[in-house]
Design goal:
The complex is a heterodimer of chains A (257) and B (313). Chain A contains eleven helices and no strands. Chain A has helices spanning 2-17, 20-34, 46-83, 85-90, 96-130, 137-158, 164-179, 181-191, 194-206, 216-220, 227-254. In chain A, helix 5 (96-130) runs antiparallel to helix 11 (227-254). Chain A is globular, with a radius of gyration of 20 Å. With 313 residues, chain B is an alpha/beta fold. Chain B has helices spanning 46-53, 95-105, 112-121, 137-150, 167-182, 194-200, 218-222, 236-244, 269-278, 293-304; strands spanning 3-14, 20-26, 29-31, 35-39, 61-66, 69-70, 80-83, 155-159, 186-191, 203-208, 211-217, 223-232, 251-254, 258-263, 282-290. Classes of the chains: A mainly alpha (257), B alpha/beta (313).
Amino acid sequence: MLSRIRLIMWDTFLDVARHKMLMVHLVFVCISLGLFNLFGHFSTTPSLEYRMIQDVGLSIISLFGFLIALFIGSTTLRDEIQRKTVYAILTLPMGRWELYTGKFLGTLLAAVVNVLIMLGILTGLLYLKFGVLWTGFQWVALFMLFEFAIMTGMVLLFSLADSLIVCFSLSIFCVLIGNMAEHVQHLVREADIPLLSYLTDVVYCFIPNFGYFNIKFKILKDLTISPSFALWAAAYAACYLLFLLVAGSWALKKKDL
Amino acid sequence: MKELVVTEEITKIVGWWKKETIVDHVSITLHEGEIMGLLGPNGAGKTTTMKMLLGLTAISSGSARMFGAPVPTPASRIGVGFLPEAIQHPDHLTVHEYVRFHARLSGLSGNGSLVEEHLRRVEMWDHRDRLIIDCSKGMRQRADIARLLARRARLIFLDEPFSGLDPCGQVMLKELLVSLKEQKIGILVNSHAAGILADVCDRVCVMNKGKIILSDSLETLLKTSQTRVTTVFSSSAAASKFAEGRSSVPHRLIEPAGLEFLLEDSAGLNELVQAILNSDGKLAEVVPVMLTLDQLFVRVLSEQRPEVTGGNA
């Protein structure tokens, strides 16, 4: 069972990693990050320029990271079902959850590797330009990995919908609402309407709170990330990923192919 | 013979508001070493029947067992292989990698000798390093057969396997199926190409609108009650004179001096044969008329079609 999951995971990773669209995304990232030299004209001091590049660089990575999660999450399993290549696997004496778990892990691995590559490019560019190694890199990498792992898992779940538009719409909706979690909850508290507060709590039981992973402000201000906070974020990510895995396995089991 | 597949009144109903019955109380049995054809027009429910047996689609009602285990448990799919219609292949694997991947997924070691043996058997060993998507349809199909063999399939489902194959490919696939049958592998083949199925199948089920309308051994299905009697006379005049006296029996003249009679049943056979022997004709052959599977298929479907009544009174 574990060997099958591992095989499917590795095959999925290789399939995704070789996809041309991923290369296109990475090229765009390199071009975008390479435009950093323009920032020298707008900043007054090197430290300000450094912060601006970090800020914009992380925003670019967030955007492309989301696009990559959307692309690989929506195509990995869906393409296999449409091309009928999944039939050859599902007619083996195995549960559908094994296939889904292998696909889930392989897709997550591909997303993680892409995020690490993009962060590596940004860190490398910063070092080349300023000769300073980015000390908060490991925290940024960790929290971004949590964020994009959840995004990818979510898109993979939605890719089981019959329509690609439904998959994209649900994914974009969840990412937007998930990123606005703190603002929405603050507004609801200010409004002081119990029903609204209850509904918001219900919604945020299912939609992930991406605010937990948004540490860009802290990194730019050189604030420290406490280990307990990192552990809490890791536990939240792990629980949510487990929820996505179980939900996806159940949805695949019920789907008529 | 061991029963590999047994279905009892399996049904598939789809739709939320408007229900539609795709497969309607289908019961089939497939034994080891048997090739069964599921013949029917497009939309008859052949592929859905297969998918239900393979656990790809849920059964709405009824039950099915494969290798004695209830469908759709994983145990029912031990030793089962499926070749879907118009399957596409991964674009990142070579032929060898593709077969080895599936061998390893089946729990086999995927060692070189096993994969090599089956690739050689389907004449794909020389193309093992080609990307599978770069191979022709016939080659990809042979690679898929190697995939099924590499996982030691004892029961194989083929959905429109002859579709898109050139005549050489069809012949090769037919020979392969016959050789698999000799190894006691059970094979269920979907097709609407009746002529090709007739060359390989032992039994045929004809499906239409979700129901099985005919199911029997090929020999029994194609037999008719008709008999053809061919005779040769000394001259065309003698043949014509004999035929005049038998105008109620359908016949035709065969140049230069022959006659061919087609009897609907055996009632008049003795009388006709006696008459021929008493004349100066010589009996050439007396054979039962067999339909082709195409003819049977068309006949059965036309009987199924509702009559079109006329226009205004």
